[in-house]
Design brief:
Elements lengths: L4 E5 L1 E7 L2 E8 L2 H9 L3 E5 L7 H8 L4 E4 L23 H14 L6 E4 L1 H9 L4 E2 L3 H4 L12 E7 L4 H6 L2 E6 L4 E2 L6 E6 L4 E5 L6 E4 L10 H17 L4
Parallel strand pairs: 1-4, 1-5, 5-6, 6-13
Antiparallel strand pairs: 2-3, 7-10, 8-9, 8-11, 11-12, 12-13
Helix pairs in contact: 2-3, 3-4
Length: 244
């Protein structure tokens, strides 16, 4: 068996490199790639597309052993039938359609899924859940996202008996950058909380590996979530491998 292949969802953004200025590119912070590769997998960046549907998603997923639904801008509140709060960022329909398709297409399968920040919110919305559009209105502080492009840090406590607790233990300090959070999450069990009552992680207790966190593990030095994802992807790849 070769190394498992992990897809990582991305943006299409205008970027500059060398002599090329303001050119559309498929982008994701390299920290995601580094963590996936350090954990022993091959990383593949998946650009978004506005016409993505579950059929397209399944075509892509057939070629993967696992997927990371990465962080990014706010999910369009219209997708969970809510009125838009003034703080909500401009929507990215290409990412919304692509990642919601991935979340729905992977539900009920054994493909390992790790949702990170926005990815957790996408998974909740795909399942029929709702988001808190501006978390400071609920918790009364900005510690989850202290300033533009500045990560906060705070402890989270895992729920005993969950897969996440088995990976991270009872408590862990996490790098945080989000002004939204998951309010309802049909089909998922809560697996970590912040001290202020913010849901920090959820998982599907009936899935092989389907886990999401509200923080940004790719920013920190703790590799355990990526190691667990890749280990699950390796098991799945071995199951699918033809026997001689």
């Amino acid at each position: 068996m070769g190394r498992p292949v992990i897809g990582i969802t991305a943006y299409v953004e205008r970027a500059s490199w060398g002599h090329w200025v303001d050119v559309p590119g498929a982008l994701i912070p390299h920290r995601y790639v580094r963590h996936v590769e350090d954990a022993g997998a091959l990383a593949v960046v998946i650009p978004p597309r506005e016409d993505a549907d579950e059929e397209t998603a399944r075509e892509i997923l057939e070629r993967l052993d696992g997927i990371v639904l990465a962080g990014g801008v706010d999910v369009a509140p219209e997708l969970y039938a809510d009125e838009r709060h003034a703080s909500v960022q401009a929507s990215r329909p290409d990412r919304d359609s692509t990642e919601l398709a991935f979340a729905r297409a992977t539900a009920g399968t054994d493909l390992p899924v790790l949702g990170i920040c926005r990815g957790m919110q996408v998974m909740a919305v795909a399942a029929g859940g709702r988001l808190e559009q501006h978390l400071p209105d609920r918790v009364g502080h900005d510690e989850h996202s202290p300033a533009p492009a500045t990560y906060g840090s705070h402890p989270v406590r895992t729920v005993a008996g969950t897969r996440l607790a088995g990976i991270l233990g009872e408590e862990v300090d996490v790098p945080s950058y989000h002004h939204q959070s998951v309010l309802t999450h049909p089909g998922y069990a809560a697996s970590a909380w912040a001290d202020d009552g913010t849901l920090e992680a959820m998982e599907d207790p009936d899935a092989f590996f389907r886990l999401a966190v509200q923080w940004h593990p790719e920013v920190g030095t703790d590799p355990r979530l990526f190691v667990a994802l890749v280990a699950a992807a390796r098991v799945r790849a071995e199951r699918r491998s033809p026997r001689g």
